[in-house]
């Protein structure tokens, strides 16, 4: 598969314009992601359509708590990434691109997803946007087949490709890993302004939820969570924020996140956002209540929905974050959940 968003540069190099790194790729070499290559002066994608992982997951595992709650999602992962987070939990596939999965044409992928009975397909696990062309093709086929589409991403995608891709995506879980531009560059190998612009684009097109892994020492977390929740509330106070506990992984051995810190940060973010969740904690429970009558809308134990109190509204009126698309089954009050 040939690469999009790539152009000729000096000395036989190709300039990749997909992400803010803007790699100038020499003949026979790959960009920083390890996926996008220069082969005889053409942008090539030797790993395109070669998944690293396939599974059927609860949608809550993405995590998406207000998009198709209680359903399963057909999930496909890839190799490569645009970042170098030292605490990456999927480093075996994000940082290694010498492996070669078996070819999986996008039409076959979507046919299998439909056959699974899942109402949606997720591009997830490692960073799917480095496989932009394949994801765009597969997401377009998915929508034609009646599947909802989900993207789980670090948001390191330039504005042009982001607008193009988001036109095919129904729901996004975006990692905002901290709120320090310096830490994004120095520790993570990313670019915070690009990620925030991606959030703006995603919020215009799709249902958006955000995850922040609270990694000790990465940021001043009270300041960071205040900044993240302020930013998100400026887009829409209906955007859910997931504050997730870190556990040591790959090249990072700081102690796990304190549950007390997570609860403190959850209360801080809840001053600005309507839905803030704590995740990746043993015995985790969460409950959403009707803002009008207090009845249970969704009750969860870990990734399992144990009680549901929602009914649908016919159609979605405008952008998903602009108008409620569900009702409380008890009193009929409109609520911000996508249930179909």
Q: What labels describe this entry?
A:
3 domains; alpha/beta; globular; TIM Barrel; 3-stranded antiparallel beta sheet; 8-stranded mixed beta sheet; 340 residues; 8 helices
Task: Kindly describe this structure.
With 340 residues, the protein is α/β, with parallel strands linked by helices. It has three domains: 6-44, no CATH class; 53-281, TIM Barrel (Alpha-Beta Barrel); 284-340, no CATH class. It contains eight helices and 19 strands. The chain has helices at residues 91-94, 106-116, 132-144, 159-166, 181-188, 192-205, 221-235, 259-269, and strands at residues 6-8, 14-16, 24-25, 37-39, 42-44, 53-58, 72-77, 120-124, 148-153, 171-175, 207-214, 241-245, 276-279, 285-289, 296-301, 304-308, 310-312, 326-328, 334-335. The strands form five sheets. An eight-stranded mixed sheet has the order 6-7-8-9-10-11-12-13. Strands 1-2-3 form a three-stranded antiparallel sheet, with no helix packed on it. Strands 14-15-16 form a three-stranded antiparallel sheet, with no helix packed on it. α2 crosses α3 (132-144) and α4 runs parallel beside α6. The protein starts with 5 loop residues before the first strand and ends in a 5-residue tail after the last strand.
